[in-house]
C-alpha cells in the first residue's frame, strides 16, 4: 500500500478502573485497573484495510472504539490525517465524527427497533444537522441499493429483516455520511457462510467505489485473508505482530501468532495439520506485571521476557513485519519437535509424534 497515513495511533492506552473494596481502603492499596489496551501503536493508510485478530478479550474492540473516539483513551496519541483527534471538543468533534463510522458486532442491539429504515440509516445525517427530513429520506433511498437493499423498504422496521439484512442496514448507516474510515466490528460473526461471502464481497466493492479505509475486527482469519491488506495480532491489550496479511498469516514469527493460526480448523480432512502447543495460565489484565504478556504460556520464554516489555520492531529478513518478541530472530527459524504435534486426520484421530 502506498497511500498516506490516515490514522496514526501511538501508544494508545485504555484502563478501566475497578471499584476499591473496603480491604483496599483499610490497607491503603492503590486503585486497580483493567489494562484493556496498553500501549498499542497502529497506522491505517488511506484506502487500506487493516485486520485486527486475536482471542476474545485481547482488546480488539476497545482499540476500534478508541480510534473512533467512542472511548476516551487513558494515554497515548491519535492523529487522523495529521490532525490531533484527542484535542477536538464540541462542534469540532461532532463534525469530525463523520470521518469515522462504526459497524457494530450486534446488528440487533445497535438498531433501534422503534425507528424505520430511513430514520436509522439517516441518523448520522440528522446528527450532523445539515439536511432536512425530506432530504435525508431521499438520500437514504439512493443509498440502500449500494448495500444490496431495495429502495422501497424505507418504512420497514429492523425486525422485518434477516440477520444479513440488518447488517446491511448497519453498513448503510455507516456509509451515509461518506466516511473515510469504517471500523467493522465482527461484521459477519452472526451470519451463515453464504451471507458472510455476500457481505465481504460487498465490502470489497464499496471500498473500490468510495475509496474508504477499513479497520476489520474479527476472529475470522479467512475473512482477513480475503479482505485485508495488512493485519495486526493482539494479545491481552497489546499488538504482538503487525505486517502484510500474506506475510503474517503464512509466515508468522511471534509464538502467539503461530499458536493462534495453528488453532484455525482445517476443512480438508485429508490434510495433516501441525498444531503448535502452548500451556500455562492466561495472566490477569488487572495491573499486569512487567514483561511480555505471553511469557507465562510461551515455550521460548527466557528470564528477560519476564521483566522487560518487548517492543514492536522490524525483523531482519522480514521487511515490513513488526514483532514484539525478544527472541524473534530465533523463533522465526525454530520449530522444535517437542513443541509440535502432528495430527493425521485420515486416521482415527490419534496424535502421533512429529
What's the gist of this structure?
The protein has helices at 22-26, 60-67, 90-96, 107-110, 117-121, 123-128, 133-143, 163-175, 193-210, 221-227, 245-250, 255-262, 328-333; strands spanning 5-17, 33-45, 49-53, 75-80, 83-84, 100-103, 181-185, 213-217, 230-235, 238-244, 272-276, 313-315, 318-323, 340-344, 351-353. It is α/β, with parallel strands linked by helices and 354 residues long. Strands 6-7-8-3-9-10-13-12 form an eight-stranded mixed beta sheet, with helices on both faces.
Give the arrangement of secondary structure elements:
Blueprint: E1 5-17, H1 22-26, E2 33-45, E3 49-53, H2 60-67, E4 75-80, E5 83-84, H3 90-96, E6 100-103, H4 107-110, H5 117-121, H6 123-128, H7 133-143, H8 163-175, E7 181-185, H9 193-210, E8 213-217, H10 221-227, E9 230-235, E10 238-244, H11 245-250, H12 255-262, E11 272-276, E12 313-315, E13 318-323, H13 328-333, E14 340-344, E15 351-353
Parallel strand pairs: 3-8, 3-9, 6-7, 7-8
Antiparallel strand pairs: 1-2, 1-4, 4-5, 9-10, 10-13, 11-14, 12-13, 14-15
What does this structure look like?
About 30% of the residues lie in helices and about 25% in strands. The strands form three sheets. Strands 6-7-8-3-9-10-13-12 form an eight-stranded mixed sheet, sandwiched between helices. Mean pLDDT is about 85; it is low at about 335-354. The protein folds into two domains: about 5-240, P-loop containing nucleotide triphosphate hydrolases (Rossmann fold, 3-Layer(aba) Sandwich), CATH 3.40.50; about 250-354, no CATH class. With about 350 residues, it is of the alpha/beta class. The longest helix has 18 residues, at about 195-210. It has 13 helices and 15 strands.
Amino acid at each position: 500500500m502506498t497511500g498516506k497515513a490516515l490514522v496514526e495511533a501511538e501508544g494508545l492506552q485504555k484502563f478501566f478502573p475497578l471499584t476499591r473494596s473496603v480491604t483496599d481502603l483499610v490497607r491503603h492499596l492503590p486503585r486497580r485497573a483493567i489494562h484493556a489496551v496498553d500501549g498499542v501503536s497502529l497506522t491505517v493508510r488511506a484506502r487500506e484495510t487493516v485486520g485486527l485478530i486475536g482471542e476474545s478479550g485481547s482488546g480488539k474492540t476497545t482499540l476500534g472504539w478508541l480510534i473512533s473516539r467512542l472511548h476516551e483513551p487513558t494515554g497515548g496519541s491519535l492523529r487522523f490525517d495529521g490532525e490531533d483527534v484527542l484535542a477536538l471538543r464540541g462542534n469540532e468533534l461532532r463534525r469530525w465524527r463523520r470521518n469515522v463510522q462504526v459497524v457494530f458486532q450486534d446488528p440487533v442491539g445497535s438498531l433501534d427497533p422503534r425507528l424505520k429504515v430511513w430514520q436509522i440509516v439517516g441518523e448520522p445525517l440528522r446528527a450532523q444537522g445539515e439536511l432536512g427530513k425530506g432530504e435525508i429520506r431521499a438520500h437514504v433511498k439512493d443509498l440502500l441499493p449500494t448495500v444490496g437493499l431495495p429502495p422501497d423498504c424505507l418504512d420497514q422496521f429492523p425486525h422485518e429483516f434477516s440477520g444479513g439484512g440488518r447488517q446491511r442496514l448497519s453498513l448503510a448507516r455507516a456509509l451515509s455520511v461518506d466516511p473515510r474510515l469504517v471500523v467493522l466490528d465482527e461484521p459477519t460473526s452472526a451470519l451463515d457462510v453464504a451471507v458472510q461471502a455476500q457481505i465481504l464481497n460487498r465490502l470489497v466493492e464499496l471500498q473500490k467505489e468510495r475509496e474508504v479505509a477499513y479497520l476489520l475486527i474479527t476472529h475470522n482469519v479467512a475473512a482477513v485473508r480475503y479482505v485485508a491488506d495488512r493485519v495486526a495480532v493482539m494479545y491481552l491489550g497489546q499488538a504482538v505482530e503487525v505486517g502484510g496479511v500474506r506475510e503474517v498469516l503464512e509466515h508468522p514469527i511471534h509464538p502467539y501468532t503461530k499458536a493462534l493460526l495453528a488453532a484455525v480448523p482445517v476443512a480438508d480432512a485429508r490434510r495433516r495439520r501441525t498444531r503448535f502447543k502452548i500451556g500455562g495460565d492466561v495472566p490477569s489484565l488487572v495491573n499486569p506485571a512487567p514483561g511480555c504478556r505471553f511469557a507465562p504460556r510461551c515455550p521460548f520464554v527466557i528470564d528477560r521476557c519476564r521483566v522487560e516489555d518487548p517492543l514492536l520492531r522490524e525483523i531482519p529478513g522480514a521487511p515490513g513485519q513488526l514483532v514484539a518478541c525478544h527472541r524473534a530472530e530465533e523463533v522465526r527459524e525454530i520449530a522444535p519437535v517437542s513443541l509440535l504435534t502432528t495430527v493425521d486426520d485420515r486416521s482415527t484421530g490419534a496424535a502421533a509424534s512429529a
